[in-house]
């Protein structure tokens, strides 16, 4: 068999290690968190340097080309092992990291300078590789449920073969006296170095694949999370052109994936929002900040809907913004629920009319309006309601109130406001009245419609209305004062026989409340 040039094999090993180190450094720089690839790159660099020092045997001092070179080889594999432990989530073994290289250095120095034995030096190096490779294989094979286990098994196999070849070489060295120098051109040395070249290449490729498998696993998980998210997710480029939407976005908007690609989010604009909001949003995200807010958008079928959204810039390593991502939730039901809650808080549950609180807000708004016109506040009290409620029960009273509310609503204009403020008491706000006569017409209409009999079951019941009226700005421009004056005027009607209306007077004074 022709003996191979071992120095050439060392150069090939160095080139493979250097190429692997460059690839692993690129992977390390691309990582956002520690995964061991930095130690793998350092380990390959040490192995490359060691190979070059061994190649320089004869030209370099023996301490460098023998002791330091072989110690660097051990350090290189220790760094790869340390990276594997970090990669698998295990803490590095500091004692091994520091004691192993030191022990190797001491033993190589001893068996070179004190008791010169090439066989023992070969055995020390080989068994050091065997121990480190065995620990690496054990660590990788323990991760049986990891998503990268296939690539991990490949690294374990390569390390196992490397350890096995050197184990054989170490045993041969212990029981053979044929070695005359470290790079002895024997079949055993050449075979080990040649197999080492292929195995080192396999280890390098496997480590790169291991790093990529983690990245691919993370990307797959992120992709599945985005695809299956219940939230609508949209990704645009830095100009706002849509690059991606997830299925939830497609389902909620009614647009297909192909229809949205290349479009901008403006396709969803409903025209219900102030354009300045979009200007503010764009200014915020292009400045590198996150924008949070609400959109009132329109689906493909024309249906309006509300969304709460978080829009964030995607920054590259150099800090430049490459994309924008928005995560959105449909809050239409929540908006409707809040609207119903506000309605219930400000409207009477039985009649649906505004409550006293909402009425006073509207009255104050009318009084403070810049183009405020003359207006009137009517205080309406139902005469005889208590007697019907006591005689026929609360259900009859409720039915009567509902019917009376309907008659009141029919008696006033659409721009006027009627509110229920008590059991049988109502307030009416008439805005933009021409004169006092027009208010009289409203009051007379209310009195006339309410004195008409109401039917409850087979029974007809009758009530009437007493109405007090306060005008603004004639009587006052204060809401509370107007209501009090209308209340006083209403009680004046009750004292005079009920079933009528009366205007407040500036000289009116409180009086005792007559029985209803």
Structural notes for this entry:
This protein is of the alpha+beta class and 516 residues long. The chain has helices at residues 6-30, 37-55, 62-87, 94-114, 118-141, 149-174, 187-228, 247-253, 257-260, 275-286, 332-346, 356-368, 385-392, 394-411, 436-450, 479-495; strands at 232-237, 242-245, 291-298, 304-315, 321-330, 375-383, 417-420, 425-430, 454-456, 459-461, 464-472, 500-503. The strands form three sheets. Strands 2-1-5-4-3 form a five-stranded antiparallel beta sheet, with helices on both faces. Strands 7-8-6-11-12 form a five-stranded mixed beta sheet, with helices on both faces. A hairpin with a 5-residue loop joins β3 and β4 (304-315). It is rod-shaped. The model is unreliable at 509-516 (pLDDT under 50). Pfam families: GGDEF (PF00990), PAS_9 (PF13426). Residues 373-506 form the GGDEF domain. The chain crosses the membrane at residues 6-27, 39-57, 63-81, 93-114, 120-141, 153-172, 192-215.
